[in-house]
Amino acid sequence: MKQYDVAVAGGGLIGASIAFELASEGMRVAVFDAQNPGREASWASAGMISPAPESSVMASLLPISMASVQLYPEFLQRVEELSGKTVGYRKDGALDLLLNGAEQSEIDEILALHRGAGLRAEVLSGPEAREIEPALTSELRAAVHRPDEASLDNRLFTEATLEAARRKGAEIFPGNGAKALWKERNTCKGLQLQEGRVEARWTVIAAGCFSACIEGVAAYAPVTPAKGQMMALRCDSVNLKKDLWSGHMYLVPRHDGRIIAGSTVEYEGFDRNVTVAGMKKILGGAISLVPALESARIEETWAGLRPDSPDHLPILGPTDLDGLLIATGHFRSGILLTPITARLIREWVTTQKVSENWAPFSPMRFQQARHSRGA
Ligand SMILES: Cc1cc2nc3c(=O)[nH]c(=O)nc-3n(C[C@H](O)[C@H](O)[C@H](O)COP(=O)(O)OP(=O)(O)OC[C@H]3O[C@@H](n4cnc5c(N)ncnc54)[C@H](O)[C@@H]3O)c2cc1C
Asked: CA-CA distance, 317 to 302, in Å (whole number)?
């Protein structure tokens, strides 16, 4: 049995980026994935790097979201240089769209949320927004412009991060996932794998929405899958510059000319089927924002499973088992939060101190909640 400094369960973007950071520090790192790594949520995602809170509930994410945005350029540069792959990063901003019928109070609410968070945001009239994006519907009442937002091709980014981790010496084992924590008294000694077991000073659980299926993990990471359906469109007459938002619907232009359209949020267990209802909702939303998309070709449809937690916040940090760290529950923000997650786990493993307050995301919060309910 081989021994490592760090054993990571899960080779999605979160596990890959943690492996990359720790291997870059000269640590011996192994990543164990139940299948080919990087084929779950990190593959299915829309790839937006958007710190804008969708509601006041998500405002507690803001400090680490902003820290992650700051880390992105350098993190990307390291990943691209080492892997030799580019990841389609675009920093062209986003428009939050309000169609006719929207109330002034909705516009005020969006602005207050953004400005309260310290994000640059300006209100544009319908015609002003159409000057920037001529393909937008004439039914547009107003738009909130967020000039600092970015997106990337998350599939390329995940592949590149896995490759960068490998080049720094991390070993990646596809098709040998974690079955259980390997516990001895108050210590996590490593992982029981599908085949054999691995011993490590540090064990990091980063298996996305599957994390709670690993025996012993659910108490720290009670994650559930939140399905999101997506499609890729191509339309010669539409050339979008900005990421477009309207409610939960979005259109994200890619560097290769595709437009990614999404999404749904469905709690259907581990089901990944694409449904007529899902496609109807996305297509209806897309056409209402950009009518010319009626002539677009549908290049691909898919669905992925976001790792959601009971309070929709990430689950990050140490546990009451010595050596066990959790890094999951990133829900709709895992791409955004990749660099900061990797940084915080690296800081904890190397110095047992972190540069951001991660107490609100502690894996121990679910146990405390259970105890205070007397369960
Ligand atoms: C439709 C959709 C759109 C999204 N859009 C955005 C967006 O625009 N911006 C944003 O920031 N976020 C977005 N997200 C969220 C983001 O994609 C996720 O939060 C992020 O990818 C989670 O990464 P992960 O590595 O934790 O999980 P995953 O990518 O799901 O990776 C988990 C890995 O663990 C492996 N695994 C499973 N079981 C085991 C086991 N027992 N042992 C070991 N390994 C195991 C899996 O095979 C997989 O490789 C979106 C998600 C979806 C589904």
From this structure: 32
Beta bridge partners of 183: 188
pTM for the whole structure: 0.97
**CB-ligand 1 contact for 177 (6 Å cutoff):** yes
CA distance 50 to 86: 20
* Ligand 1 contacts CB of residue 338 (under 6 A): no
Q: If you measure from the C-alpha of residue 139 to the centroid of ligand 1, how many angstroms do you get, rounded to a whole number?
A: 35
Are the C-beta atoms of 47 and 151 separated by less than 8 Å?
yes
Compute the distance between CA of residue 223 and CA of residue 218 in angstroms, rounded to an integer.
7
DSSP code at position 38: T
**254-260: long-range contacts, CB 8 A cutoff, minimum separation 24:** 254/88, 254/151, 254/153, 255/88, 255/90, 255/153, 256/88, 256/153, 258/232, 258/233, 258/234, 258/299, 259/232, 259/233, 259/234, 259/235, 259/293, 259/296, 260/46, 260/47, 260/230, 260/231, 260/232, 260/233
Ligand 1 center from residue 153 Cα (angstroms): 14
Kindly state the helix (H) or strand (E) to which residue 131 belongs, with its residue range: helix 126-132
Residue 325 CA to residue 321 CA, distance in Å, equals 9
211-220: per-residue pLDDT in tens?
999 999 999 9
229-284: pLDDT as tens digits: 999 999 999 999 999 999 879 999 999 999 999 999 999 999 999 999 999 999 99
| 48-49 vs 150-151, strand pairing mode | antiparallel
